[in-house]
Amino acid sequence: MDIIKVTSYEEMSAEAAKIIIDRVKETPSITLGLATGGTPIGTYKKLVEDYGKSAATYQHVSTVNLDEYIGLSGDHPQSYRMYMENHLFKHIDIPAHQTYLPDGTAENLMKECQRYDQLIENMGGVDLQLLGIGQNGHIGFNEPGTPFNSRTHIIDLMESTRKANSRYFPTLESVPEQAITMGIQSIFESKEILLLASGQKKAEAIYKLLEGKISEDFPASILRNHLNVTLIADAAALSHTDL
Ligand code: GLP
Question: Which residues lie with the beta carbon below 6 Å from any ligand 1 atom?
Fold first, then answer.
């Protein structure tokens, strides 16, 4: 794993955006795997800023997001579709039909999971996957205990995850109890992975990621076996390590 140590959230976001912009330039028809949460917001902001002042185009880019809450439609303010629209899609020239997220309101959720896997396969897999990390080591919404060989599936969110994400909802009760998430195997098959971590809250998770056992009890640990992962982390997130 390559590690880029930065001093701040701002710098982490700038580094991540730079890598994404470079890859899109190199391969205009790239498939980007995108993440939500607080961590990548700064990265998306930098991409939008760059789009406004450079010749960058996303016309041929396709995106697949990691996850979506079950029960929230794409126009729900807390849905991940809405998050992506607000933070990135509506600000750049990516055609709407090239942006994919699981449908959390699909009538047949099992079928929706299969459709999502098929979609990723038809696209030839993800070229560059952007990832955050949960405090319990989750990636996407793959909570501890999720099999490493999992594909897109339905997951019961842990109370701690619902609590952490309740800051985006009016109340804890309104945070959905389930989500559809790309599986760990699907994430692992991405050709390149960019993992972002910022702040003291992530220090324990980053310590376990780098020094702990590779185990399904800590989903992100599988990334140590991947040959092309770059972790961009600030000093606070690295503070439990010797780095
Ligand atoms: C959420 C998302 C993850 C994200 C993680 C960390 O539950 N499903 O994709 O990486 O939590 O979130 P944050 O970046 O807000 O700390």
Answer: 35-39, 66-67, 132-134, 140-141, 161, 165
